[in-house]
Amino acid sequence: MLTTLVAFLGACTLIAASPGPSTVLIVKQSLRSRRAGFMTVLGNETGIFVWGLAAAFGLTALVAASELAYDIMRVVGAAVLLVFGAQTLWNARKKKAGADDADDADAPVKARSSWAAYRSGLLLNLANPKAAVFAMSFLPQFVPSGAPRLPFMIGLAALWALYEVGYYGLYVWCVGRMKAVLSRAAVRRRLEQVSGGVLVLLGVRLAVEG
Description:
Blueprint: H1 2-17, H2 21-32, H3 34-56, H4 60-65, H5 67-94, H6 107-126, H7 129-138, H8 149-177, H9 179-182, H10 185-208
């Protein structure tokens, strides 16, 4: 059991360290605030857990087996990436030096912003068909022989999500620590341009690939 868990966490580390849309979105949201970054992480990991549950119950096999279902999810996922990327590029374009005054917003605005950040992380993950197929192929490899498959896979899905909360939380913390530099209007605008461009490119790639 211990060997299985060590191997599983090692694999989770390699997965999290691989750059992808979720990493870009988390960094992008962390540029706004630590709260936004962390809520995006929670949304993303909720999606991970949902796909883990779906894999445990065999539902993700339907996505892998059905070309139509996969293509629909692929197009939706590409659209989500393109929208997020376009919004980021647009915000970077219209950002002005005094835009940081928004930090003085009241609590209701912050609450809505937190929910929007959580929703963006969740939506990006759930709209990614590769996440569904990956969860189906990844989790069963770590179920020990003779162990009850369903509860063990649910436990692994929960552990995967919790581990990535901590891992990506470090990203949010690091961006926050660099806030003195990143809060400069020119630097922040350039980073948003880069992250927006990357999201658009990832969306285009997801749209055109089979």
